[in-house]
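Exam prep: given the inputs below (a chain plus iron/sulfur cluster), describe the expected output before reading on.
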Amino acid sequence: MQTALADFIRDTPEGREADAILRKCVHCGFCTATCPTYLLLGDENDGPRGRIYLMKQALEGKEITDRTRLHLDRCLTCRACETTCPSGVQYGRLLDIGRKLVEEKTARPAWERIKRRVLAAVLPCGFLFAPLLALGRLARPFLPARLAQTIPASVARAGAWPTPRHARKMLALAGCVQPSLAPGINAAAARVLDRIGISLVEAKGAGCCGALRFHIGYQEDGLADIRALIDRWWPTIERGGVEAIVMTASGCGAMVKEYAHLLRNDPAYAGKAEKISAMTRDISEVIDTECARLESLPVKKGGRIAFHPPCTLQHGQNIKGVTERVLARAGFELTPVPDSHLCCGSAGTYSILQPELSAQLKRNKLSALASGEPEEILTANIGCLAHLQSGTERPVRHWITALEERLN
Ligand code: SF4
Ligand code: SF4
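Solution:
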């Protein structure tokens, strides 16, 4: 489409990038068919094509209103539109630029600002989130049902982390909320990799990947989190001690793979960010490559499962069918899941900031996952896991913990 970006942004790196993305869009509307918010609300402005047009207007200097912000807020950043688009429009990158501009040019009501500030302060900090979660668990019986269901009643123990003993080593990201909500995920990944000859290690003090603050309206704070994480990882990477960085949360994986792009204009970090993005693998990619070694181990067969591929895995990282292949090779029976390309409504802090839309998406997703009557639901991202578990009695867990159980 034709563009005429306003003077204030035209010659900036963001302006040039946004212009190139906008010019690729031919306004065909194929993307609307796979947009979860368009499917729920039926409003052009709650679909990708409408949002692209709203961002174009904002970048061209037209008036930016609270309605503009509302339609961008309702976007899940699931990027299903991106993997549908035949013209290669990088909607997610345009949204980062558009949201930053809209955030600067409009004023949110005080309560909304406070809510976002609190989420951005608490969630990425394990030392704040862990005690608050423990308090929440104590208070759970006295909380309204809707709030209580978002707090897990118990957390399974992590189990032992194997002592590093192999020449092959990989680095894992502990993450921010995952160690409190499901500490067993990384430990299970470490035990599975240990059995196929790879030692998984974590860098001390390496926490949030930056996605949380970046996507909630504090992009500079998110970039500061990214630089802090790179600083924690860099000594290990520089020594050449690890062959890959392994992600057990697909949301973090999608973000870390974007580091090269996000820090491309920062001379102090661009080279490091590029190397880190190139080294990053989702745990499914690692296990898939090493599957032959896994198959030489005794594996129990059976078990009907439904797999929910998080948007950050299938659209953000464009990894489709890999986890399903690994699970099938490990002897799981995968039930069919209709509309598996659609978001479950978790989407970072979306479930807190857009509770009605999120709850509807969760109900739809759980009904699709339950349609094949699986014994349990497996997924690949802590956010989706906690969100889905809050709406069903059926067990929901990370697929690597289920795979580990098969090997025992
Ligand atoms: S983003 Fe892609 S699919 Fe959507 S309207 Fe533009 S060109 Fe068409
Ligand atoms: S990112 Fe997801 S919710 Fe947002 S416009 Fe694209 S498909 Fe719709």
